[in-house]
Specification:
Length: 275
């Protein structure tokens, strides 16, 4: 299904299940709706309705040179999407870049949307720019990356991306690589580079202070071996939020929902069923 955010910006989404409690899934930087395939089938579709979207510039959503792919822009799009679907009993599950959007939605729009709970997986909560993103922000490296994207097969790009994100390298299979590389077009790479350049708002430090105002119950999940965003960020976020718990996943990198899906589902499901 498609949500028309603007004349040339369309957001792809799927809805499964018919439960009263609505789960909105927000993927990470450079990923897509497919990152949730590993856990989505485990949820009870009579209790939950699962709404999975592709953020602008990712997956099947629009990619335009004129679009703004910053966290605050994605937040505005998701906010309008929530109003479009009139989501009420809403739980937001955000990974990495999507976790940043989930936090911004909560602090900027908590009076306008009814967020019941938050699940934040290896979330980009602080003013930290991962090495891979710093690489994409460098003009010279952008040229090299753009050239490589044209001449290097997509599946090899996917292979090296997942090797950096996974702790268990044996899980970097052809099937998993394909879930990423299918969207690694030259056009999408340009969108990702643009997003990396402008991803953090200028007033991000002021927004971070407002985490302390969040009263929504939150489950924070982190891969202990995350090389993209340190687990120390998870500990800091857990201390900054008033009503949160932290689960550290052993032998796991930056994408726990893919690398440890059984453990992640059990943590999330238990949290969702808490009164």
């Amino acid at each position: 299904m498609i949500f028309d955010y603007s004349a040339n910006e369309k957001i792809y989404y799927t809805i499964t299940g018919s439960g009263k409690t609505q789960l909105l899934f927000l993927h990470g930087f450079g990923a897509s709706h497919k990152t949730w395939d590993y856990i989505s089938d485990s949820f009870d579709k009579e209790k939950f309705t699962l709404i999975v979207i592709d953020l602008l510039g990712h997956g099947n959503s629009s990619i335009n040179n004129s679009s703004d792919y910053s966290i605050l822009s994605q937040t505005s799009i998701v906010f309008d999407f929530i109003k479009f679907l009139n989501l009420k009993e809403l739980i937001i599950i955000g990974h990495s870049y999507g976790g940043s959007v989930a936090l911004m939605l909560t602090i900027l729009h908590m009076k306008n949307i009814n967020i019941k709970k938050l699940v934040l997986i290896d979330a980009g909560a602080y003013n930290q720019i991962p090495v891979s993103m710093k690489y994409l922000r460098n003009p010279f490296m952008q040229l090299i990356t753009s050239f490589a994207n044209v001449v290097v097969p997509k599946h090899l790009v996917g292979y090296f991306v997942l090797r950096n994100l996974y702790f268990d390298k044996t899980l970097v299979t052809r099937e998993r690589i394909a879930k990423y590389s299918i969207f690694f077009s030259h056009k999408q790479l340009k969108a990702i580079i643009k997003a990396a350049q402008n991803i953090l708002p200028g007033n991000f430090d002021e927004l971070i202070i407002r985490y302390r105002d969040i009263e929504v119950p939150a489950l924070i999940i982190w891969g202990k071996n995350d090389l993209v965003i340190s687990p120390l960020s998870g500990e800091k976020l857990n201390s900054d939020l008033k009503n949160s718990s932290l689960g550290i996943i052993e032998n796991c990198g930056h994408i726990p929902q893919e690398e440890k899906p059984k453990e992640i589902f059990e943590l999330i499901n238990d949290f969702l069923l808490e009164v």
